Amino acid sequence: MILRLFCIMLILFSLAGCVSGKSRSAIKPGAMISLPQAKNDIIDYHESGEYYKDVNVLAKSIARRVKAAINGKVRYPAVVMSVEDVLLSTYNARRKQGFSDNSAARKDLYSHIILSRLPAIEPSVALFEFLLSRNVPVFIISHRGEAVRIPVMENLSKAGFSGWKSLYMMPPNYPADLNYNEEVRRGLQKLGFNIIATVGAVPDDVAGEFTGKAVLYPNYIYSSRK
């Protein structure tokens, strides 16, 4: 299921021009499907419950890793989690815009963020509560800027996420050649925390060092953040 949907999203991006890039590979004729079918398959994946089953499997794998760290008496264990499509879902907002990434779609998504309207991803709520019950601090990273810190905090609270250790927002004019997520993890490591797992929705979220168990939630709505 995951591999099939990954292929579907590659087709969707190629046909709709949702994601920019220096070059695009040709799609083999046998793999070609229609754009409406690709969108329908994404919707079916989410609304059939398969998406949540896959996320639940990943969330439980993180819980097992944390249990093992605690039983192994790892000092100062911690977990790092991204906001969008890890804790809060952008699916409804993106579906409304046909999963496109044009300026209108980005503005609409931003309005959901400003109004703190993004719903929780339920398996992440259960994982979050488990971590807090074991006194494992959760550090949250958002790729959004400081201008939306308060709405993001309110959204997290409304969705059932409270008690996290710190929320890191993207600094202004951050160098393009640095991975902010990795730099945050590097700082936590220097403070003495042992990161047991890092949970993201796009590869940059879990790229680089100090990830512990690197976990990518299934995400077929976009391949990179803008």
TrEMBL record:
PROSITE patterns: PROKAR_LIPOPROTEIN. Transmembrane segments: none annotated. It comes from the Bacteria. Pfam families: Acid_phosphat_B. InterPro entries: Acid_phosphat_B-like, HAD_sf. This is Acid phosphatase (Class B). It comes from Maridesulfovibrio hydrothermalis AM13 = DSM 14728.
